[in-house]
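In the design runs reported in the main text, the only information available to the sequence generator was the tokenized backbone. The following block is the verbatim input for one such run; it is reproduced so that readers can re-run the procedure and compare outputs position by position.
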């Protein structure tokens, strides 16, 4: 939305509020990459029809509207059913494709339950100096292997999480878990 508005807003940035409806209309009329349909189509069962001078007809009388209403509603219902089915199929294909693409770069690591690992957390806290920032946190213990690429890990306090194998590396010193654990116990008791 911001990118669309940035192309048309004036130099002083004072007319953005008048441009919002046009940007929303453009967004709603644009087919989505995954589903293949525009949001407007999925809501109404047809594409947006913009009024032109040839299309500005007088309103139909109620008796004409009622005679075509039944056929139009059935047509809308079948069109929406077809669109929703297609969207579900396209979403499933997109999900499989994205997972295959992501897993293609996955590292082959055979971690076992009980292994000690470190977790890659690239997010840096605001105001933290990059000189002292450590992207690898831990240690963590592997609790379970959920799939070829996903593992459940647990920290020293017992909090667990599921992570992708790309974010894990095995600790060289497997005794680090006991050392850290003893240190935490002595700190909390003292």
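Verbatim output:
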């Amino acid at each position: 939305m911001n990118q669309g508005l940035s192309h048309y807003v004036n130099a002083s940035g004072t007319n953005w509020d008048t441009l919002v409806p046009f940007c929303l209309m453009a967004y709603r009329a644009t087919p989505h990459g995954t589903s293949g349909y525009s949001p407007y189509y999925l809501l109404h069962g047809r594409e947006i029809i913009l009024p032109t001078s040839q299309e500005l007809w007088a309103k139909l009388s109620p008796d004409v509207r009622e005679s075509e209403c039944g056929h139009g509603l059935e047509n809308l219902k079948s069109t929406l059913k077809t669109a929703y089915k297609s969207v579900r199929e396209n979403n499933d294909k997109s999900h499989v494709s994205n997972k295959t693409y992501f897993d293609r770069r996955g590292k082959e690591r055979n971690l076992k339950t009980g292994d000690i690992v470190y977790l890659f957390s690239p997010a840096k806290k605001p105001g933290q100096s990059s000189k002292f920032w450590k992207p690898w946190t831990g240690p963590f213990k592997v609790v379970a292997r959920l799939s070829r690429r996903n593992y459940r890990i647990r920290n020293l306090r017992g909090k667990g999480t599921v992570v992708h194998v790309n974010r894990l590396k095995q600790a060289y010193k497997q005794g680090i878990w006991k050392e850290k654990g003893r240190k935490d116990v002595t700190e909390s008791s003292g």
